[in-house]
Amino acid sequence: MRLRLPAERPTEPPTGYKIAHPVLSQDGTRAGFTGVSLGGALPYGVVAEAACVYGLRHRAPHRRCDCGFHCVHDRRAAEALLCTAEHRAAVLLEVSVLGAYIRFERGFRYARQRVRVMTLGACACGAGAAALGEAGWGRPGWRALVPCCGECLRGRPSLSPAGFARLAGDGLRVVAGGGSAPAGPAAAQGTGVPELVAEAALLQARLDVFQAQLARLGERGERGGHGGSGAAAG
After folding, report:
1. Is residue 62 classed exposed, middle or buried when 0-12, 13-18 and 19+ CB atoms within 10 A define those classes?
2. How does strand 107-120 pair with strand 91-103?
3. What pLDDT does 60 receive?
4. pLDDT tens digit string along 5-59?
5. Cα–Cα distance, 179 to 128 (Å, whole number)
6. Angle at 114 between CA 101 and CA 86, to 5 degrees
7. What gap in Å lies between CA 165 and CA 173, rounded to an integer?
8. Which residues of 149-187 are buried (b: 16+ CB within 10 A; e: fewer)?
9. Mean of pLDDT values over 87-107
10. Is-contact 158 134, C-beta < 8 A?
11. Whole-angstrom Cα distance, residue 122 to residue 129?
12. What local confidence, expressed as pLDDT, does residue 230 receive?
């Protein structure tokens, strides 16, 4: 006798939470995500359909396979995954579970999803994130991004939160998460602020870095000038 799972017919799509790495296409025209575990080799967009990572032709999620998207019910359970060393640079996603799904004690395995909200964590230095900077690794055709503050960008390729939301499309919202220092008005309010304001905040952060570098150069010049005067007087 075949066992049948209880059938559910919710009035609206269930909500789940997961972590992922934001990615930018090689040509800079598309934004998406890549998973942190089994499905990490297959980047996906805001609205995506799962495929079997083993190349089998059955539809996901299959009862005798572990294919399909995965998420947990509890936001705090997903946030706890961000505490591990290998996942510190990941972001938190709030998703709508679409299509067929299998319910487990802690979450879902399912066929389709829509990413509604991406929450940025703090920069690696602990400050609030002002942008998404290139992480230094990626997948074929995709560059991974990490939350960065203005000080840590240091001229590397970057994308504002509003810019990422625009390239990802399909109504994605990007909001700022934790951090010991504010990241600027655009990062604090996410895409609810016009994109122009977000870009201005990023430029201001870069300007602050530039001014700090000029100040250090000026201090070095003053020390060098005093040393020269002393030598001449002697």
Report:
1. middle
2. antiparallel
3. 87
4. 677 888 899 999 999 999 999 999 999 999 998 778 889 999 999 988 877 888 8
5. 4
6. 85
7. 6
8. bbbbbeeeebbbbbbbbbbbeeebbbbbbebeeebbebb
9. 94
10. yes
11. 5
12. 39
DSSP summary character for residue 128: P
The residues, ordered by sequence, that sit 6+ positions from 182 with a Cβ below 8 Å of its Cβ are: 128, 188
Kindly report which listed range (54-58, 179-183, 219-223) carries the lowest average pLDDT score.
179-183
Whole-structure pTM over 0.85, yes or no?
A: no
Task: For 195-204, write each residue's pLDDT tens digit.
Answer: 444 455 556 6
Burial status of residue 223 (CB atoms within 10 A of its CB: 0-12, 13-18, 19 or more): exposed
Interatomic CA distance for residues 129 and 152, integer angstroms: 10
Rounded to whole angstroms, the Cα distance separating 50 from 118 reads 19
Token readout for 6 is: 């209880």
195 vs 91: CA distance, rounded Å? 20
- Return the closest-CA partner of residue 39 out of 31, 28, 48, 30: 48
Between CA 106 and CA 127 the distance in angstroms is 32
First-to-last C-alpha distance (Å) of the chain: 102
Structural element, H or E, at residue 216: helix 195-233
**Under a CB-based contact definition with an 8 Å cutoff, are residues 160 and 202 in contact?**
yes
Chain centre distance of CA 33: 8
